[in-house]
Design a protein that fits this description.
disordered N terminus, alpha+beta
Length: 275
């Protein structure tokens, strides 16, 4: 097996080279604890030390406990640098979970916000929290499977297939998840500008609001669409969803709840339509 991997500019030992050769020979991108010990005929303790040593030095990437991402060929200099989107796709493959990229990544991708995010924000059905994997920082938002959807397959510049939310779903997320992304009232402007340029996606925005939001989000988006002149016929389903809700919420969260009351949408209009 040692002939498959060349020792160029590395200080990898015999077992490291054998592990890489094993993975390459079988065209394995992911290896698991247990199989390495069997393949290399070593003890569980030796296997753990080997995998830990290689992950620490950056030759392989620890996706989660017991699962490691392995390069198809020896990285230049011995340390492996790989796209965060590739890491994400393989992590979700191991976790057997659904995922979709949203938040600041989607806002930048669709041109709503020119700030380039330093982390990848991921709605998914398996894990929650901030994690650093293979040199990429992730924010995982664990979400019910019912809120997964309205996505598009995206080919990244480095030729990685990933899952991005649709444009209208990104707008809904900006209103729904405003505390996490700090996107209100900015998101109202994004919606208004987008629908002015692409009025044909209004129905998609309404559908995504009905499918993936809550009553508070429905009230805010419904009121905004009414102010933008969207017909009552299109807004009728949004109104039906909030008809049983008698509570009032502020149009702009974080500002004092002082202003006119809009009973139709259950809002305290505490600011102008757009900021």
């Amino acid at each position: 097996m040692n002939n498959i991997v060349k020792r160029e500019k590395t200080k990898l030992g015999k077992m490291e080279m054998q592990l890489l050769a094993y993975a390459q020979l079988r065209k394995k991108e992911i290896i698991f604890s247990g199989e390495v010990a069997i393949a290399l005929d070593i003890s569980a303790v030796q296997e753990w030390k080997l995998l830990n040593r290689m992950a620490t030095s950056g030759v392989i990437i620890r996706l989660k406990r017991g699962a490691y991402l392995v390069p198809s060929r020896l990285p230049v200099g011995g340390r492996w640098t790989v796209s965060g989107y590739y890491i994400l796709s393989k992590l979700m493959e191991v976790m057997e979970g659904q995922y979709q990229i949203s938040g600041p990544n989607a806002f930048n991708f669709y041109g709503f916000d020119d700030q380039i995010p330093s982390r990848i924000y991921v709605y998914n059905t398996k894990i929650f929290g901030e994690k650093e994997i293979g040199g990429t920082d992730f924010v995982f938002v664990k979400t019910d499977a019912k809120r997964m959807g309205s996505t598009k397959s995206l080919k990244t510049p480095d030729d990685i297939d990933t899952v991005m939310v649709s444009k209208t779903r990104a707008l809904v997320d900006a209103v729904y998840d405003w505390p996490r992304f700090n996107t209100l009232p900015r998101a109202y402007g994004w919606i208004a500008e987008t629908l002015q340029k692409e009025p044909e996606i209004t129905g998609n925005l309404i559908d995504d609001t009905l499918q993936y939001s809550n009553k508070g989000t429905t009230k805010r988006i419904g009121y905004l669409l009414a102010r933008l002149g969207i017909s009552n016929d299109l807004l009728s389903e949004l109104k039906r969803v909030i008809s049983s809700s008698k509570s009032l919420i502020p149009w702009i969260p974080g500002l004092a709840a002082k202003g006119s009351v809009n009973k139709e949408w259950g809002l305290i209009v505490n600011g102008s339509i757009l900021h």
